[in-house]
Amino acid sequence: MMDCDPFVTPIPSRSKGHDLEELMVFGFLTYPKRLNVLFCDAVKVWLILGYEDALEVAVNAALTAAHKQRESMIRYAATFVGPLEQLCEYTDTDVGSIPTTDSREQTVELDTVKERLEILLGEFRETESTSLLQSRNEMNSENETAVQKGDTTYFKSRYPNFFLLW
User: At what angle do helices 52-64 and 110-129 cross, to 10 degrees?
Assistant: First the structure.
């Protein structure tokens, strides 16, 4: 039999509680990166496909982000059109037509993408003045959950053919 010293605190074993706590901290630390991926996917889906849910997610993801990350997100969105213009110049498709899927059967006009970008940037300016809570109250519940979790697979699972190309 071993004698137990009452003044020595035993080292706690790694229980499920500690693992869960570590996962929560890990999730907290990776949330900005996941939110950024969700935002980028939302911007692509909104600008190329024009789906309103993507616009909603992009705006709310930017609002959720910290100030510096939000600025970076908005810069990404604002510079998205430049490479698309170059793509149109160097492809043999119709001038101004951008493929939307891997099959390249569907296209979107560059001017349409530019119009959507202006809408997106306008939404950023408009919602910066409103509260995040008000904006979230108006969100679709699936979109809200995606933003809250920073779900990086949200759009990729909804539009898999689109993400084969983009």
Answer: 40
| pLDDT above 90 for 149 | yes
Number of domains within the chain: 1
Average pLDDT, the chain: 77
Higher pLDDT, 89 or 35: 35
Give the separation between CA 60 and CA 127, rounded to whole angstroms.
9
Answer whether residue 134 is part of any domain: yes
91 found inside a domain: yes
Residue 3 maps to a domain: no
Q: What is the pLDDT of residue 110?
A: 84
Half-sphere exposure at residue 126, Cβ-oriented, CA atoms within 13 angstroms: 11
* Residue-number span of the structural domain to which 139 is assigned: 30-165
Query: Is residue 2 assigned to a domain?
Result: no
